[in-house]
Amino acid sequence: MKEALNDILVIELGTVLTAPLAGMMLADLGARVIKVEHPNSGDPFRRHAGELYSPHFVAYNRNKESIQLDLQSESGKADLAKLISQADVLLDNYRYGVLQRLGFDDECLKELNPRLVQCSITGFGVGGPYQDRPCYDAVAVALSGIGSQIIDPENPVVSGPSLSDNITGMYGAYGILGALYNRTRTGEGAKVEINMLEASIAFSPEGFSQYTRHGTIPQHFSRVAISQSYAFRCADNRLIAVHLSSVEKFWQGFIQAIERSDLLEDERFATPPLRTKHYQELASLLGETFITKLCEEWCERLAAHDVPFAPMNNVPEVMADPQVRHLETFYEVEHPERGVLTAIHRPVRINGQRGPTDKAAPTLGEHSDTIRREFGLF
């Protein structure tokens, strides 16, 4: 099957995470993505492990080509202009004003390529009091309200994977795809703008709806209480997650699985709204039960009663999980210099196929010579 974006050329001026993720998503759909990197150092994400090919970089840059260009030099700017003139998409996540200072403002880009879809990812958008401030994941998570809904104020620890970075990269790819489709109808390019603040707010709309409709300010346990989501420690110290939702059959099956029929007689837990109201009390009681048996036994009991559950897998356990193995989520790809690497298939299948995702993340400037010859660069 011909990939959806086989004929699309993307020039990525991406560093660290947001734009590289958007570029990788387009590459996974078949686009040719040329990553423009600074000579000698490249994308700062390359250096996270004290080398120029860190696991962080590998995770967000598969299926791309790399060319080294010094955009502070006139020759580097001229080379970039040639690439842009032949591209379909220009993707960047520079701080506001950087691209303009390099000489590539909106007017210049339109003159170079009227059909160009330009996607600009910033921290806080254009204008406003925060326009020139630096933005990273923890900053956007905090400012957008996500942090207040996932961090316990009594034990304020920022943890887990990058949320705002990944969210923004996904919205970037989404915007680019919409603009490319619109170009098929109008023949005209477009400027797509995404910022980490708004992307993060849009990704968690529930809390804003609760506040504007009922005046309720969500706390770090609000969503889990409403959805009746729990995490319990088992006798072998493993954790297990349970999600009972508002479907009464899950609550009934759960009670049978854990053999706690006494809870059915407790007026505090008689209905879903009451279980939400008394969430912390219920969680404490259930925790006393789960600590009495091994995680594997709880998994068997919950599965037998059709309760939504899962063991809290760490990374190696995810890779060994039988469902993950069935889906063939992970695959190995060999890089000519770096050896065999483990990669993740795109999670989207089209007509039952994932597409030929078989190119490892590039080393710095790996394709410079090839690209220079092909595009007639200096």
Automatic annotation (TrEMBL):
> What are this entry's molecular-function GO terms?
transferase activity
Q: One of this protein's Pfam families, by short name?
A: CoA_transf_3
Name the source's superkingdom: Bacteria
Alphabetically ordered keywords of this record: Transferase
| InterPro entries registered for this protein in UniProt | CoA-transferase_III_domain, CoA-Trfase_fam_III
Looking up PANTHER family in the UniProt record yields:
SUCCINATE--HYDROXYMETHYLGLUTARATE COA-TRANSFERASE
This chain's protein is named: CoA transferase
Organism of origin is Advenella alkanexedens
